[in-house]
């Protein structure tokens, strides 16, 4: 008899977490496991890639309220839910005034914490062998699902974000297991939540290799990433503080001053786009730092670039870096706290300093070293970055 598994996430928009969810879904043995997927919103460019074996549960209207404008949810008659969201946002703003030294995920946590009392049960007549909460917050798997085992995923470095520790601890304690995407993410999480250390299990991101390789050949992007006498760099990610894209124009300018001809392409979207454009203008890099915007399929752009760069301030384990390696691209990343778990420095990528001037100098040294670039390319082609075997760790938790 098949084991029953429920996986819950927010939506299927373009992002590393969503692509790693696809990797997990593509790796499951559907002869042995029956999988229901519940999304808070049936939205996102990656929806169409959910495997046909997965049973996508119908949307439940109250859950769709969480990420939409409150004016719209009021018009739809969600008065109590909207009021609860507003209460959560107000509480998060008060918390932020008292604790403002790091990027905060308190508002996201509170949006679920303050509304969960109004949310209906998810599949109330079904008891699952396992329920997986793939993206924070984890309240709905904790309190709205019947399951023998409950697992929650960590995707970020918890020492780099502001949280309400006491509040989150109560949420995490309701989980049987906590899946971490890297050893350094596990360490940072256990430093914050020492009492949860024994619940942490390493399950690395699983990438949908066949889909990535197929999509990489879907279109020709030479009209956007032009094949001219420049080294073509690419960075993919949400336009947000963590990704450090606002420093790219200065880094690009400093590299070009060394005599290297580079063009740096950015794929993504988010709240800091206007800031990045301002920084491009300030550095007079309009011809050399090119914002390509949001792309449903980023893989032809990875295939077209010469070097993939991730200049982040912090990461859990960046999916785009692994995807670039999978496609044989030399990778340069900054020395964020979890960088040593991202790649093997000098073998399948290079780690450079995060500080802008040192980052530019380190990148320039790599870009000049053609033998190193070729060695990184060759080593990436010889390695398996899919991590498909990681799904076995999930199976063992159900048994």
Number of helices: 16
Q: Which overall shape is indicated by the principal axes computed on the Cα atoms?
A: globular
Mean of residue pLDDT values: 93
Quote the distance from N terminus to C terminus.
13 Å
Query: What about the largest sheet?
Result: 7 strands, parallel
By DSSP, the count of extended strands is 15
Q: Could you tell me the strand content as a percent range?
A: 15-25%
State the helicity in percent bands: 25-40%
Low-confidence stretches are none
Q: Name the strands of the widest sheet in spatial order.
A: 3-2-1-5-6-8-9
What is the CA-atom radius of gyration, in angstroms?
Answer: 22 Å
Structural class: alpha/beta
Entry summary:
About 40% of the residues lie in helices and about 20% in strands. With about 400 residues, the chain is α/β, with parallel strands linked by helices. The protein has a 7-stranded parallel β-sheet with strand order 3-2-1-5-6-8-9. Strands 12-11-10-13-14-15 form a 6-stranded parallel β-sheet, sandwiched between helices. A two-stranded parallel sheet has the order 4-7.
Secondary structure elements and pairings:
Elements: E1 3-9, H1 16-27, E2 33-39, E3 55-56, H2 61-64, H3 70-75, H4 79-98, E4 103-104, H5 106-113, E5 127-133, H6 139-144, E6 146-154, E7 161-162, H7 165-172, E8 177-180, H8 183-192, E9 200-202, H9 209-216, E10 231-236, H10 248-257, E11 262-267, H11 273-282, E12 289-293, H12 299-304, E13 307-310, H13 319-326, E14 331-334, E15 350-352, H14 356-368, H15 370-382, H16 391-398
Parallel strand pairs: 1-2, 1-5, 2-3, 4-7, 5-6, 6-8, 8-9, 10-11, 10-13, 11-12, 13-14, 14-15
Helix pairs in contact: 4-5, 10-14
């Amino acid at each position: 008899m098949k084991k029953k598994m429920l996986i819950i996430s927010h939506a299927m928009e373009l992002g590393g977490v969503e692509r790693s969810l696809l990797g997990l879904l593509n790796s499951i043995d559907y002869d042995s496991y029956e999988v229901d997927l519940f999304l808070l919103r049936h939205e996102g460019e990656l929806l169409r890639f959910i495997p046909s074996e997965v049973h996508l549960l119908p949307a439940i209207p109250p859950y769709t309220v969480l990420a939409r404008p409150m004016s719209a949810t009021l018009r739809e008659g969600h008065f109590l839910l909207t009021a609860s969201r507003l209460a959560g946002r107000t509480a998060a703003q008060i918390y932020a005034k008292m604790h403002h030294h790091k990027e905060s995920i308190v508002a996201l946590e509170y949006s679920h914490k303050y509304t969960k009392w109004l949310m209906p049960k998810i599949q109330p007549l079904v008891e699952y062998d396992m329920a997986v909460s793939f993206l924070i917050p984890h309240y709905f798997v904790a309190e709205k699902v019947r399951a023998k085992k409950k697992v929650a995923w960590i995707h970020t470095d918890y020492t780099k974000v502001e949280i309400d520790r006491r509040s989150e601890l109560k949420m995490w304690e309701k989980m049987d297991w906590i899946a971490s995407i890297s050893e350094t993410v596990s360490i940072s999480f256990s430093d914050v939540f020492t009492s949860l250390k024994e619940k942490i299990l390493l399950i690395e991101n699983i990438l949908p290799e066949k889909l990535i390789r197929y999509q990489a050949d879907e279109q020709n992007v030479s009209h956007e990433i032009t094949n001219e006498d420049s080294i073509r760099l690419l960075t993919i990610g949400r336009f947000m503080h963590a990704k450090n894209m606002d420093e790219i124009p200065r880094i690009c300018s400093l590299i070009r001053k060394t005599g290297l001809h580079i063009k740096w392409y950015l794929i993504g979207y988010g709240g800091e786009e206007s800031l990045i454009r301002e920084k491009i203008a300030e550095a007079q890099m309009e011809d050399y730092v090119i914002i390509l915007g949001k792309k449903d399929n980023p893989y032809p752009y990875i295939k077209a670039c010469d070097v993939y760069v991730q200049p982040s301030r912090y990461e859990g384990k960046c999916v785009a870096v692994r995807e670039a390696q999978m496609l044989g691209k030399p990778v340069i990343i900054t020395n964020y706290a979890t960088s040593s778990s991202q790649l093997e420095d000098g073998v399948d990528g290079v780690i450079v300093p995060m500080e802008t001037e040192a980052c530019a100098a380190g990148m320039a040294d790599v870009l000049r070293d053609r033998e190193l670039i070729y060695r990184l390319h060759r080593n990436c082609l010889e390695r398996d970055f899919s991590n498909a075997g990681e799904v076995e760790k999930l199976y063992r938790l159900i048994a």
